[in-house]
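If you are new to this repository, start here. Below is one unmodified record pulled from the training split, so you can see the exact layout before writing a loader.
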Amino acid sequence: MNNIYRHALYFAPVLGALFIMHFVLGTSSNMLMLILVVLLKIIIPIAAVYFAIDCRRRLNDDLFTYWQAFRYFLLMFVGASLICSVFIFIYVQWINTDYLIYIKEISSQLMERLTQTLSSSVISESEMEQIINTAYTPKMFTASSFLSNLIIGFIITIIGSFIVRNKKQDSNDR
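And here is the target side for that same chain:
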């Protein structure tokens, strides 16, 4: 069982790199880059399933219960999310310090449009500004990115575990 977890942690950086590519390409406004972001949304679950099947075949005699697969996927996605979050924190804290300012401006504009559309707002403008300023600190932005990657990973984990599971067959069936 320890080899299974080692395998998951071995491939977590690969998924983490895919998450990082997804983030970096998503910061661009270039249409080609946005198409690559969509492509990565397809590649990430396929890669995760491939890694789990590889583990099942190489390390577990082609046997994986649902819960073994579930733990494998979950460990891999937690590791990948942590790696991506470290990169995102470094990116917004030191590499592109204006990125969060840009995102704040876009969010403020969207909230203003939404408020105008709804005409009566439950949240005052100052409260809205405070929420946006709190949400777009490097720590909060990194935490929300980690959580969103983890949620996506959890959804892929639930579905992928059904795909990858392979229970032991009786010797009479062979």
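Two things worth knowing about this chain: The longest helix spans residues 66-95. Residues 100 and 137 are 7 Å apart (CA to CA).
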